[in-house]
Design brief:
The chain is mainly alpha-helical and about 110 residues long. About 60% of the residues lie in helices and about 10% in strands.
Length: about 110
């Protein structure tokens, strides 16, 4: 089944590429090349959706970052939903943050 789909996919992608190169309307291209107008519109819609999904996955990739040098003298202020203002040193580890946040927010 996958073998049958590949030539069909390539057929529509090739026609969409040619249409974009030539310009003009999709309907005019379909008529000039003996293609079903509705099938060409459906292929365009299908492959644009697939491309959008693919691009959104690509955009979600992680990028390398460089962290600034740790300075324990700086503080971070966090306003919790219960009105508590929490000021903590910026150098706290994840293990130190979790119990502190749960305690201050009233969570257990």
């Amino acid at each position: 089944m996958a073998r049958r789909r590949a030539p069909r996919r390539e057929f529509w992608l090739e026609n969409l590429r040619r249409w974009r190169e030539q310009g003009g309307t999709l309907k005019a291209y379909a008529q000039a090349n003996g293609l079903s107008v509705s099938a060409l519109y459906a292929a365009k819609s299908h492959y644009e959706r697939a491309s959008t999904k693919s691009q959104s996955l690509t955009r979600a990739t992680l990028l390398p970052v460089q962290l600034a040098e740790e300075r324990r003298s700086e503080t971070i202020r966090i306003a919790l939903p219960n009105g508590v203002l929490l000021e903590v040193p910026s150098g706290l580890s994840a293990g130190e943050w979790t119990p502190l946040m749960m305690l201050m927010s009233g969570s257990r």
